[in-house]
C-alpha cells in the first residue's frame, strides 16, 4: 500500500478538521468510529458548540455558563491523540519512518490545552481573550514548546553520538 493517495500531512489536517476522519482515510475503520463517537460524546456533553458559538459572538460569560467543563477537559487529549494517531498511521502506510521523539510536541499540546481549558472560565482571562481561544492558544503554545524540547533532546542525542 505504498502508493497511498493521501500524504501524512493531509491525514493530520483531516484529523484537525474532525477526529476520526484521518483514521477513515487510513482505512482504520474501528479507530475512526471510536474517535468520531468520542468526539460526539464529549462535544454534546460539554456543550462545546454552544461554548464556541457564544465565544465568537462576544458573549464570554454566557459561553462559560453554557459549558460543562468537566466534560470539556476530555476534549483536548482525544482531539490531539486523534491527530497523532492518524499521522503516525499515515507515516507507516506510506512507508516513511517515524521521526524520533515525535510524540513530545503532541503531548505538550495536549497538556497545555487541557490546562488552558481549566483557566478558560477565569474572568481575568476571558475579559481579554474569548474563552474558546484560550485552549486553542494552549494547543499552539504546547506544539511550539514541545517542538523546542524535542529539538533540544535530539541535539543532545546527536552530541552524545558524535
Automatic annotation (TrEMBL):
Give the source species. Answer: Bacillus lumedeiriae
Q: What is this protein called?
A: Uncharacterized protein
Q: Which domain of life is it from?
A: Bacteria
Q: Which residues cross the membrane?
A: 32-52, 72-88, 100-119, 125-149
Q: Does the keyword Transmembrane apply?
A: yes
Keywords, comma-separated and alphabetical: Membrane, Transmembrane, Transmembrane helix
